[in-house]
Amino acid sequence: MDCTEFQSLIAAYIDEELSVQDLLRAASHLNGCAGCEADYRQMLQLRDAVRANATSHVAPRHLRARIQNDLKRAGKSDGSMTLTAGWPWRWIRLGAALACATVFSVVLGLQVMAPASVPGLEEELVASHYRSLLVDHLTDVASSDQHTVKPWFTGKLDFSPPVLDLTSEGFALAGGRLDYIGRRPVAALAYRHRQHVINLFVWPEGGTSSGKSGTVQGFQMVHWTQSGMHYWLVSDLNREELEGFKSLLSKDIDRATPKG
Ligand SMILES: [Zn+2]
Question: 246 near 233, Cβ under 8 Å?
Fold first, then answer.
């Protein structure tokens, strides 16, 4: 990827809208290009400043209904608006060069038109997996040693996730990080299998609704509960191998869990 291509993808890169392949190409360009890196940082700062300081209001239900009605009448919508909640970078870039009021109105406009539904648990997990593939986002503690990774979580979570190394089975532990899924802090453990990254999310049962295994946005997801914990695997690895990894983990979790 060259600078021109990266610049054309920078907004989609920040919004995490690229395919995994483009994401990795963009990340590798960013790693080696100081110029693009500076542009990237600047846009992140701008986004954070708008998030932190722009005034925004959630539209009341009746206003949303009225706008949807008007759009429907104008024949511009079938009533099922599917605007993404992402940041309109092209607009914000322009807006930054103009008056702040322009930015505010774009932000306000987005709030008015954003869909009311919150993303499901599966989408949150996929988004976290996706973020982890960005440069330097895979782990907070990078280690293949479970005796380094496990204590790292102590004091950061109100539970102790089992941390298992399955290097001998072809699944190398890359490290761990904290994440926030389903309105609670969770443990995320990263594994590598050939060129694939696998994220294992762990949190205690209860409170957060469970979900189903399946395919979401092209990623395979495997969910199970065991010894009082929810486990989610997310990866672009094929279904069979991911299920195989689940069986290995499941056996080791059984072995690692003290029997009362
Ligand atoms: Zn560049």
Answer: yes
